[in-house]
Design a protein that fits this description.
It holds the Pfam family TetR_C_7. This protein has 218 residues and is mainly α. 76% of the residues lie in helices and 0% in strands.
Length: 218
Amino acid sequence: MRLVKCGVTCYVRGMAENRSSSTRPLDPQKRLAILEAAQKVFLSQGFAGATMDHVAAEAGVGKMTVYRHFGSKDALFEAMLHEVCAGRFPHAPLPESATLHDELHALGTAFVELVTDPNRLATYRAAIGEAERFPAFARLFYEGAVMLVVDHVAGRFHAHAPHLSDVEVRRLAGMFLQMVQGPTLLRLMLGMPPQPWNDDFAAQIEMAVDFVEPRLRS
């Protein structure tokens, strides 16, 4: 509530203006600018060093605008993770004639595209680097990015295997994704010299599909 010293009329006007501001629709362009700024700030300063003031300055908006879109630093960080790591899961629609085998290959390929994205790799490295000192950072990364991808894949698995329980499809989805990334993702995260990563990932996708497909059919 904004207090105004010019009497009852101005006081009431201030209340009305404040109420109007709080109910004004949020600007999607500002939201995107804030998320892009948050990514730069969190990756350059770490979770602990980043502040809402830094994000607001980077985005070119006021701090209260950041709070209107995201109520806290944790909420902003989680939304940023979703946008960078899970919000753009590049799984193109498949034709109606596609088989379960086709969809599993598509899911594996989409996951590789996701985890090898430079922004994703940078965020992953930051989460691991900060995990011991700031466990909240690691928890938000795990819940806001990793588990969203697992849930997406588990949902597709459940559509093909309704006889499996939620726990079973989530466990199977986690195993599938772990097999797809294999040791190749770790080598990329460590910045090891370039190799024909595509060949390695293709072999890992094939192994993951061979492992999961019969379990979804049984």
